[in-house]
Amino acid sequence: MDKIIVKNIKAYGYHGALTEENILGQNFYADVILYKDLQKAGLTDDLNKSISYVDVYYDVEDIIKNKRFKLIEALAEMIAHTLLVKYSIKKVKVKIRKPGAPINGNFDYVGVEITREVQDYEMD
Predict the structure, then answer these.
(1) What is the DSSP string of 44-62?
(2) Would you call 14 exposed, middle or buried from its count of C-beta atoms within 10 A (0-12, 13-18, 19+)?
(3) What does the pLDDT average to over 82-103?
(4) What are the Cα distances from residue 65, in Å, to 5, 7, 94?
(5) What pLDDT sits at residue 121?
(6) DSSP letter at 50?
(7) 93 beta partners
(8) Does the pLDDT value for residue 15 go beyond 80?
(9) Boundaries of domain holding 49
(10) What average pLDDT does range 59-85 have in this prediction?
């Protein structure tokens, strides 16, 4: 399956289990991979047969900036669900990195990575 990749989206958000994280906020970084057949777009050079990277970027940025979650797992789920529904794709991978996690130690970041398919959200 072909992929559209938007990597290292940086946005300031207010996600975390601690009160201070919800007041002060911090930078979050997201990578998204949208799985879609891109052959028609490639053969026709027609954006309408693909997905706008710009739109994907702004969708992810908007969720990070304007929604609030205690867990980055919930943030990743919201991004995955939004992209699956909006772009009618079958599969998406979302990685969230939180470099400013309140841990007294040396580390680059904490993060989560999830892969979701449209059937993961279908009701029985």
Answers:
(1) HT-GGGS--HHHHHHHHHH
(2) middle
(3) 96
(4) 20, 17, 16
(5) 80
(6) S
(7) 33, 115
(8) yes
(9) 3-121
(10) 98
Q: How far is CA 122 from CA 59, 75, 93, in A?
A: 22, 19, 17
Helix or strand or coil: residue 36?
coil
Tokens of 56: 């994907």
Which amino acid type is present at position 72?
Answer: I
Of residues 40, 25, 39, 35, the one with CA closest to residue 1: 35
Confidence category of residue 124, pLDDT binned at 50, 70, 90: very low
Cβ proximity of 27 and 15 under 8 Å: no
Closest CA to 80 of 112, 115, 50: 115
CA neighbor of 99 nearest in space, from 29, 12, 24? 29
Q: How many domains does the chain have?
A: 1
122 pLDDT band (50/70/90 cuts)? confident
10 catalytically annotated: no
Catalytic residue from among 91, 93, 95, 98:
98
Q: Does this model's pTM top 0.85?
A: yes
Domain CATH for 34: 3.30.1130.10
